[in-house]
Amino acid sequence: MMAALCAARRGRSxxxxxxxxxxxxxxxxxxxxxxxxxxxxxxADLEAQYGAVRGRFLRHALRxxxxxxxxxxxxxxxxxxxxxxxxxxxxxxxSARDVRDLFVRLCQEAGVALRTGCPVREVVQAxxxxxxxxxxxxGMVVSDSVVLATGGLSYPKTGATGDGYAMAAAFGHGLVPxxxxxxPLWLETPWLRELQGIVLHGVQIAVLDPAGRxxxxxxxPILITHRGLSGPAPMDLAGDLEELHGAGRVSFxxxxxxxxxxxDRMLQAAAAAHGARAVVGALPEHLPERLRAALVxxxxxxxxxxxLTRVQRQGLVAALKDLRLPVPKSLGFDHAExxxxxxxxxxxxxxxxxxxRVPGLFVCGELxxxxxxIGGFNFQAAFATGRLAGLTx
Length: 393
Ligand SMILES: Cc1cc2nc3c(=O)[nH]c(=O)nc-3n(C[C@H](O)[C@H](O)[C@H](O)COP(=O)(O)OP(=O)(O)OC[C@H]3O[C@@H](n4cnc5c(N)ncnc54)[C@H](O)[C@@H]3O)c2cc1C
Known about the structure:
- The protein is of the alpha+beta class.
- The protein folds into 2 domains: 2-179 and 337-392, FAD/NAD(P)-binding domain; 184-331, no CATH class.
- It has 13 helices and 21 strands.
- The chain has a 5-stranded antiparallel β-sheet with strand order 12-15-16-11-19. Strands 14-13-17-18 form a 4-stranded antiparallel β-sheet. Strands 2-4-3 form a 3-stranded antiparallel β-sheet.
- Helix 10 crosses helix 12 (310-321).
- The chain is elongated and about 85 Å long.
- Bound molecules: flavin-adenine dinucleotide (FAD).
- Flavin-adenine dinucleotide binds at residues 17-20, 23, 25-26, 29-31, 35-36, 119-120, 149-151, 154-155, 159-160, 163, 337-338, 365-367, 376-379, 382.
């Protein structure tokens, strides 16, 4: 919609082909129905959220259309935004539908012809002045330019079924292997699953490669579920874990503000002062009681503090600071908010989103090998790259 809007505002004649009966289904379900449209982060900090390579590719898109510009666009069109926790911007109305409807309205006002319920089957290069022929269920359309904006593979019920990968491949584009990202994590550890319903705050979780190196860590809320881990921190780790193809592990640091030595001294002091009390009561207070009890049971230290042996104490400190658990996978594309992988960035001009292989062909949004963490970064990248495509197509 952003690409169509920008092209139409330049006076181009634009036809937006959408396979669903309505456009922007993913906007409707985003942010729990409230749409975390973008972020208040900016500059190099914003780019870094996408990782070094993807951030560099996005630099021009994000600098020429930063989150503030997206905010101004929607606010000028009558939809005020407000900032919430973690620098997230949501509509004041708390309605994702308002965001979707606004872009549909802007497209209509700019003269975009929207054809819904119209899946594109194939795009081919055509002979003659019009460079492309687009085959839809309703017949053929010819055009000077084509913008592929079909999204990725996540939440296929919203229409994201990966059609664009084949369309890009037909023009000689490669494909960076796709994995689910921003998805809840699958854990087989029974004792942890038994803690379902618990939300952890002030706990750090990291994804480790097989050599034990930290690839990414997050200190954000963690929700323990009957299948594993959900919430902002675990979901942010999903893409990196999936890329390890079953060999990934996570490490919990349940007390990131305290060193091992401090925790050890704290336990020793508690044992000296209140030897008759249960060990559970001496663990950091920000941890829910059920979790504390589970950790104590894990290292076999249930009982009074006075009976805590040195080995048990060290075991407890190790469990608090670096509890490692295998995480073979996430819950997959059906539950992933975004797709990692896609059309290789080296094959697309970052200043225009034009294919380096086929003049007149553009690729934008999640179809590209671009993904960001939770926090409005995925919409921001989609809108900013869509805009660039629309300014040249
Ligand atoms: C549950 C959920 C919550 C999310 N919440 C947020 C959030 O709060 N903030 C955020 O920044 N990001 C969020 N995201 C991610 C965000 O929705 C996507 O990154 C973004 O929508 C990508 O935009 P896009 O235009 O590239 O692709 P999409 O939004 O997926 O749009 C692609 C469109 O192309 C259509 N299409 C596909 N194939 C064809 C075809 N062959 N012919 C015609 N049309 C076709 C699809 O029907 C769809 O309408 C969320 C995602 C999910 C699944």
